[in-house]
Structures are given as structure tokens and as C-alpha cells.
Amino acid sequence: MKQGFVETRNYTKFMEGMTALEARGSVECRLVVVDGLPGLGKTTILHRWAAMEDCIYLRAKTEWSAYWMMSELLIGLGVSDAEIPRGHEKRFRACIAALSERLARAQTARQQFAIVIDEADHVSGKSALVDTIRDFTDLTEVPFVLVGMGRIRDNLTKHPQTASRISRYIRFEPAGIDDVQVFLDRKCAIPVAPDLASFVAQATRGFNREILEAIVSIERFGQRNAPAGPEGLTLREMAGEHLINDRKSGQAIMVPGR
Predict the structure, then answer these.
(1) CA nearest 222: which of 212, 237, 209?
(2) Residue 190 buriedness (CB in 10 A; 0-12 / 13-18 / 19+)
(3) Pairwise CA distance, residues 256 & 240, whole Å
(4) Which of 30, 120, 184, 205 makes an SS bond possible with 146, Cβ 3.0 to 4.6 Å?
């Protein structure tokens, strides 16, 4: 499989949302919620964006408390274990100071700075965590990007003071045929004809994980059986071959004859 990042519609939607965040008039609207089903590329996109922008990427844990979250946040901000203060109030103040200092550096360099919290469903159902994040955004103006699945929206509506500060909801959707074609062009080492690409879109239901799994199957077959025509490997040429396993049933999905 070829190396490289695929800029899908979900990626474009996320980037547009972050650009819009910078244009917001109210400094209180510093929260972005990214949600969608598993396998749509949320973690890949957000982790990559955080690394490129020198932002902080955290993964929420099932048993996260506000105290534990603040410890991981301080480590992400460059504070050593030995320097992390004990006691909730001292740790909170240390987070405020570190966030403010990091934001000032980013503004001087004309860069965007934010905290990304993945698996944020673990956060959205806990009042103490939600309130702590709201306090951080209010007191420092540092944006927080909460990444989760469908229930994160419902959970946050139970916290109206926090929900009112959400600048934008960004929902990741399954890839359409255009996105699937981009995946195949950028990642697959074997050229793929339109009819096979269309079946990949249908079989994978637009989930990134399954698209990548399909690419592995196509490459494995194509390395043994080179495409006959200039368009690439066709549906007929790969007929009867295993493409992916269905994510719901676990059953193998085979390439049809046409």
C-alpha cells in the first residue's frame, strides 16, 4: 500500500470548522465537537492535525477524573511528572498557567493552538470533566476539540452552559464514491477500474477501515494477476475473490462477476 494521507470530505469539513472557529466573535465559543461512527477516520485526521499544528492530543479513558485529566494535560503541555502539583486547586491553576503560556506562544507565531480530546464520550457523561473543560476554555480562550461517537451530542445537551459554548458540531460521514476513488488513487499500488471502485464503495459502506482492508485484498490479487486493460483491475478480473469481511456479520464479502 502506498504511503500518504488522504484528504477526504471529512477532512475538508473539519478544516473548515477550525477555520470558522477562529472567526467567531465570542471568545466563549471555543468548543468544537467532532462525532461519527467508528471507522470514519476521526482519530487519524485529528491525531495528524494535532501533530501538524503542534497542538495537544489526549485520549480520554473510561475511568478519567478531572484530576487525572489535568495530569495528562500538564504532561502534554511539557510539564514533567515531578513538577505536577498535588491537590486539585494547585493542579487546576497549573493547567491555566500552562495553557495560557502555550496559547501566547502560538499567537506570537501566528499558529492555531487547541486541545484535542479523543474518545470524548468518556468525558461528555461526567459533569466534573465537562465543567473543568468549560472552565479552561473560559479562562484561557484555548479551544478544545471533543471527538466522539453519536452519544456525545446527547450527553452535552445535559450541560447547557457548556453546550452554549460549542462553536460547531462536525459530523463525519461515510465516504462516497468520490472519496473511495481518491483512496484507491492515493493508497492502492494497483490501478483500479471504475466498476471495481464502485463495488468497493458499496461493499465497504464508505468506512475508512474497510476501504483500507479492501485495498490490501486488491493489491494482493493484483500482484499475482496484473490488470489486462489501461483502466486498471476490473470487477470481472477479480470476480470470486474475497474483498473484506462485513463489519456487522463477520461474513466474507466476495467480488461478484459483474
Answers:
(1) 237
(2) buried
(3) 6
(4) 120
